[in-house]
């Protein structure tokens, strides 16, 4: 028995997405028990690879402390997609105990309907104050864990978006130079409460594949990518036409949004070969 468990853990570590597809076929109590028995790093990876509504059922079957630990390890997009499928009282309890910055980013996404831009934005975006120097900006870049630095947004003291700088320009300048001297104007931002179809018609998409998003007070919330927006709008229309606004097509949209490479397999049966491979490792 011990060797089967070890093999299952090894399989989940090496192939988290395949393990997620197998675990999605099991009862949520069984899947939750497995997730809670493997190392935390693997639990986080598996949950992030599962379809959101299935991961939500698993989270709901876990103690709040465990659920909070695992969702604290996922990115805000994954956590928000999962928490949409968790009872409100439990979701609130999970968020209350999280690191404040992480909980706030998740809450931004949860506070918007899936038909609005704010539900699909990327909130983990590095911003810099307009009064810092190039040297200070580079130091912050080295300390951050966000990889998409080619355009870095600048805020004023009231968190209003005032422009952006390009990484390619930043790294060529003297450390003492004010970052404001390198700043370029931002395209007109999208409002987070704008419906998806309306946002798709924005003329700014002609010049950029992603746009900044602000709330009704013009505070910067994050960015939205055209590909994510188009995918979400398309799947939302399909779901509405099929009267399935809480089912398969929205799950596919959410899964595309959080970046699952094999998302299309979610609506198909798992191949026999996958079943056999999982059985050999003790997952079926």
What gap, in angstroms, lies between the N and C termini? 13 Å
**Helicity, in percent?**
40-55%
The CATH superfamily of the largest domain turns out to be MgtE N-terminal domain-like
Number of domains: 2
The chain-level mean pLDDT equals 80
> Hey, roughly how much beta strand do the residues contain?
5-15%
Structure description:
By secondary structure, this protein is mostly helical. The chain folds into two domains: 2-114 and 268-280, MgtE N-terminal domain-like (MgtE N-terminal fold); 127-229, CBS-domain, CATH 3.10.580. It is 49% helix and 10% strand. It is built from 15 helices and six strands. The strands form two sheets. It has a three-stranded mixed beta sheet. It has a three-stranded mixed beta sheet with strand order 4-5-6. β2 (151-155) and β3 (161-166) form a beta hairpin. The longest helix is centred in the last third of the chain and has 16 residues, at 226-241. The radius of gyration is 21 Å and the shape is globular.
Protein topology:
Blueprint: H1 2-14, H2 16-23, H3 28-35, H4 40-49, H5 52-60, H6 64-72, H7 76-83, H8 88-96, H9 100-110, E1 127-129, H10 134-143, E2 151-155, E3 161-166, H11 167-170, E4 190-191, H12 196-200, E5 210-214, E6 220-225, H13 226-241, H14 248-257, H15 272-280
Parallel strand pairs: 1-2, 4-5
Antiparallel strand pairs: 2-3, 5-6
Brief overview:
This protein has 284 residues and is mainly alpha-helical. It has 15 helices and 6 strands. The longest helix has 16 residues, at 226-241.
């Amino acid at each position: 028995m011990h060797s089967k468990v070890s093999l299952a853990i090894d399989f989940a570590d090496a192939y988290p997405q395949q393990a997620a597809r197998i675990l999605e076929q099991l009862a949520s109590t069984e899947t939750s028990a497995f997730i809670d028995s493997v190392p935390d790093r693997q639990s986080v990876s598996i949950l992030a690879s599962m379809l959101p509504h299935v991961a939500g059922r698993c989270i709901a079957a876990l103690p709040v402390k465990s659920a909070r630990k695992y969702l604290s390890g996922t990115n805000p997009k994954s956590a928000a997609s999962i928490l949409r499928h968790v009872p409100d009282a439990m979701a609130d309890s999970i968020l209350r105990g999280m690191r404040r910055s992480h909980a706030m980013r998740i809450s931004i996404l949860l506070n918007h309907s899936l038909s609005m831009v704010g539900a699909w934005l990327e909130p983990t975006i590095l911003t810099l104050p307009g009064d810092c120097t190039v040297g200070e900006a580079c130091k912050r870049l080295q300390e951050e864990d966000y990889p998409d630095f080619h355009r870095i947004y600048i805020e004023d003291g009231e968190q209003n978006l005032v422009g952006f700088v390009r990484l390619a320009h930043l790294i060529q300048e003297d450390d003492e130079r004010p970052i404001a001297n390198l700043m370029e104007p931002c395209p007109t931002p999208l409002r987070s409460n704008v419906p998806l179809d309306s946002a798709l018609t924005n003329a700014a998409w002609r010049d950029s594949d992603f746009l900044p998003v602000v709330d009704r007070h013009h505070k910067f919330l994050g960015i939205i990518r055209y590909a994510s927006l188009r995918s979400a709008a398309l799947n939302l229309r399909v779901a509405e036409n099929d009267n399935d606004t809480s089912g398969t097509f929205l799950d596919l949209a959410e899964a595309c949004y959080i970046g699952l490479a094999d998302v299309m397999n979610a609506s198909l049966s798992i191949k026999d070969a996958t079943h056999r491979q999982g059985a050999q490792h003790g997952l079926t």
